[in-house]
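Notes to self, Polyprenyl synthetase:
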Amino acid sequence: MRTDFQSWVAARQSRFEDVLRGLLPRAEIIPQRLHEAMRYAVLDGGKRVRPLLAFAAGELTGADANRVNIAAAAVELIHAYSLVHDDMPCMDDDVLRRGKPTCHVQYDEATALLVGDSLQTLAFQLLAEHRLSDDAQRQLEMIRLLAAATGSRGMAGGQAIDLASIGKSLALPELEFMHIHKTGALIRAAVLLGAQCGSVSPGQQDKLDRFGKLIGLAFQVVDDVLDCEADTATLGKTAGKDADNGKPTYVSLLGLQDAREMAGRLHREALETLAEFGDSALRLRELADFIVLRKF
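result:
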């Protein structure tokens, strides 16, 4: 009997927290302060949307759960590193993340910088030292995929465009291009890495990649809407920060109602890409619903 969505999410979030605790260096290992800060930045925070997408895609392709745990952890470590660096004074200069002081506030800027560096390299160490596929070439492709999603033509590149766009007006295609890289690349990688831990054909992979691209964009549109509608306590981060800093958002470009409609369109298109998978894509559909319909 299949469990309901909330029970499925709760079970995987709990299990995954234990996975992360075991994979991160223990706080008592030298250098203790760095390892303590790494654990602070990663553990006990966030809804783990990217790992959940990896788990759902892995279930669709019949992947071994232990393999997906490692792929999901690599993605989450990259995500955590990006948040630590994004919050620093040289970037977004924020003091609150996931309802607690940001890493550079809790520790210091130098430690936060090293935390991000260390989390990034640990992600690739995990992908290299654990067997995620019986096909060595596929595992190399998984490492390449995460590297591409993380670097200058993925997440880091999107952040660079974001910083260069402060105070500017972007056209919709330019804004989409930025967020396909800044936010969407890692979400797409989460879906694909989870799927590649199992058995997936090139055609299925293309469909899942399309799903990841659409739901990644939808995630950002909804974030922009929530940034206007929710308060800091609800979001767990400083509300309205992008607008205050003059960053272009979907709401500033389209208006609140049109941004909501765009999120709805992306949601429908994402669900359409899963049609051929039938009931095996149920969790991916439910996660798409959660991403777009979340109210926090």
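- The domain at 5-293 is CATH 1.10.600.10 (Farnesyl Diphosphate Synthase).
- The chain has 15 helices and two strands.
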